What we know:
Elements: H1 7-23, E1 34-36, E2 43-50, E3 53-58, E4 61-65, H2 74-79, H3 86-93, E5 103-105, H4 111-114, H5 117-123, E6 129-132, H6 134-140, E7 150-152, E8 167-168, E9 173-179, E10 216-223, E11 229-235, H7 249-254, E12 259-262, H8 275-281, E13 285-288, H9 310-320, E14 325-326, E15 333-337
Parallel strand pairs: 1-15, 4-5, 5-6, 6-7, 11-12, 12-13, 13-14
Antiparallel strand pairs: 2-3, 2-15, 3-4, 8-9, 9-10, 10-11
Amino acid sequence: MVPRLVGVRGFLVLIGVTFVLACASRLGPGVQGTTDLSGGGAAVEMTYLGAGGWVMDLDGEQVLAAPFFSNPSLLQTGLQAIEADTAAVDRFMAPYDVSAARVILIGHGHYDHAMDVPRVAGSHAAEARILANRTTANLFGTWSGLADRLDVTNGFEGDEERAGEWFLYGPRVRVMPLKSRHGPHFEGLTLFQGTADAMRQTPPGHAGEWLDGETVAFLIDFLDDESRVRYRIYYQDAVAAAPWGLAPRSLVDADPVDLAILVPATFDQVEWHPEALIDNLRPARVLLGHWEDFFVPFDAPKHSVLLSDMRHFERRLGQVFEGPWWRPDIGSVFRFPVNRPGG
């Protein structure tokens, strides 16, 4: 297991991040409330939970992308012990009935993606499986009570050239992991990088013990009664340099991507993001996730995420993507039409 960032190097990282935070500017208002484009017909409903978290719902078939509400401060994250704030998780999950969720997706093991999942899975989505990499499974170890609910992505990932394996969650949901990498946070440095090779008996106690592991993106299909694709979603929870994170061309050619969820955070640390993904996925619509600062309390007004010029990202996206896209505020709901046969 790679040790957490400590000592002089850790302080330098903390100072650099603090400087960027002090210089961050507020964005104008994002999309709020409900955006309903369904016209009253069948719709996939997307609810943004903040950070990498989403509720995806089509006719009661639910997929969760790992929610995060604990939001330890920058000082805590850099220098102190952290743990899931279970009261915050319960408070902010309470508006959402995810008791029937099929699966919780975790693209990598950093604390802002994985730390709150045991509470969500135990108290709010008790029927859901958890799909994550081997490192995340080992970080959850025996202490989380999730060992018998974990599906591990390692060895089943697809890439641009070939399809991976589908994980089936009931008759109408399937998910394919895609090989990806966590891009650098700044100056080529990726924080909390490494693998966990043994199951933990106790929870990780510091941010640096929540290691990223073998990062993946996901292709998510909602299916009809004949196992045909009704709606296809691409989801990433970390920026990756192409060809990492790209979907198999054969699958995209056969069934187009209806919606791509992209991450602006630290996009300028890799080349051709979002351009390479737009070229690969050719999505009909785009939503931006994990765009906001998560070092402040969950319900506090949000700046953009550290180390990223959000306006620059949005300009670049607009130059290569002609379809509609949104940067949602936390709690925003989208209803998109399902237009394929069986929709």
